[in-house]
Design a protein that fits this description.
383 residues; alpha/beta; GMP Synthetase, Chain A, domain 3; four-stranded mixed beta sheet; 13 strands; globular; GerAC_N; palmitate
Length: 383
């Protein structure tokens, strides 16, 4: 039997314990998973995508294919912070920003060069991390946030939040994180590429009903935080060959007209060399890439296929460079090589020319591509 004095001490101790009086149940918190921003009539508009984590948590009771609703909040204010904070008054629950994985900017906001204001304000929230995906879009942000993934999976399982799953199979436009966008915009050489999201209504059906899906349809080019223009996926094909993080992509050979083969290309390596002649800078580009045969339509020898594939890559690189010139954007990031190897010359050229864009049609000099085939797929390579 516990002595009365000891029992009294235990009761007093328990009474003094504070416990977790302010603890909140997981289902009673509004977890923001994506943010969107627009700028209309002198005011910022903030959009918050909120998902019910109890519905999307992966466990044995999860019903695959069950529709998972996305709640979308809309705020407005004269400042970025005011537009976000205006959501609190009607959220009914505590709003948590620590799970934000994506930020989307409207094209209208990008045109008014407000991206730096957004990023600066958002990063002052201690809950929000730096490694957040960034996109631009021509679509209404509410429609983007409402899109589901295949089999009615939540937006968490779409390219909105996990684009790496698609990029590992088809590397066209590289996903970018916020810190990279700002770093590239602040650097002296090159432009920043901000992927753009669109809604595709043609590719997928659920039975006979069309099911819209998100896709990357191009990218916005930013120079010093200002919008230079937009380029489509077709326009940007050449830029992927200078991306050292490219995992896997394919091309027809030739890429125009009737192809003789389809090849998959991996592990590209590049070297950009600035050459100064009579005060003008030209750039030589050398690329080596591995490839394997994915489809053989007509008989062709391996050496000839390597040469023809190299021609395709050279053509795509020059086409992307020329498309970039039309919007005064260094899509291939050529100037970065001069900025790093000879910063004194780079600064001198920009001081001499009022127009900060220095590239001309003659700036891209020699483009050399070497393709090495490593295998022919499951079949032996008989070309």
């Amino acid at each position: 039997m516990i002595p009365l004095r000891r029992l009294f001490g235990i009761v007093i101790s328990l009474a003094l314990l504070s416990g977790c009086w302010d603890a909140k149940e997981i289902q009673n918190i509004a977890y923001v998973t994506a943010l969107g921003f627009d700028y209309v009539d002198g005011k910022y508009k903030a959009y918050a995508q909120v998902l019910n984590f109890s519905n999307i948590a992966k466990n044995e009771a999860t019903e695959i294919g069950k529709l998972v609703p996305a709640w979308i909040g809309q705020g407005e204010g004269k400042t970025v912070t005011e537009s976000m904070s205006s959501l609190y008054s009607t959220s009914q629950q505590r709003v948590l920003w620590g799970h934000v994985r994506t930020i989307i900017y409207s094209e209208n906001l990008l045109k008014q060069a407000k991206i730096q204001n957004i990023y600066s304000a958002v990063n002052r929230y201690r809950e929000i991390r730096y490694n957040i995906l960034m996109y631009g879009t021509k679509e209404p942000i509410t429609k983007i946030f409402a899109q589901k993934s295949l089999l009615n999976f939540s937006p968490i399982e779409s390219i909105l939040s996990t684009p790496e799953q698609v990029y590992s199979q088809l590397s066209l436009i590289k996903p970018v994180y916020g810190y990279k966008v700002i770093a590239d915009s602040n650097e002296g050489g090159g432009s920043c590429m901000l992927p753009s999201l669109a809604i595709d209504n043609k590719t997928w059906l659920e039975d006979e009903q069309k099911k819209p899906m998100l896709k990357m349809n191009g990218a916005y080019m930013l120079n010093n935080h200002k919008l230079a223009g937009w380029m489509s996926v077709e326009d940007l094909k050449g830029s992927r060959w200078l991306d050292r993080d490219l995992e896997r992509t394919l091309t027809n050979v030739p890429d125009r007209g009737d192809p003789v083969a389809t090849v998959v290309l991996i592990n590209p390596h590049n070297a950009i060399t600035p050459i100064i002649v009579d005060g003008k800078v030209h750039y030589d580009v050398k690329i080596t890439v591995q490839a394997y045969l994915d489809e053989l339509i007509e008989s062709i020898s391996e050496p000839n296929l390597e040469k023809e594939t190299a021609k395709v890559l050279v053509s795509q690189i020059r086409n992307t460079f020329n498309k970039g010139l039309t919007i005064k954007s260094d899509v291939l990031n050529l100037e970065d090589s001069l900025y790093r190897s000879n910063p004194h010359k780079w600064h001198k050229l920009h001081q001499e020319k009022e127009d900060a864009f220095l590239l001309t049609k003659d700036s891209l000099h020699d483009v050399e591509v070497k393709v090495h085939f490593i295998h022919g797929g499951k079949y032996k390579s008989k070309m």
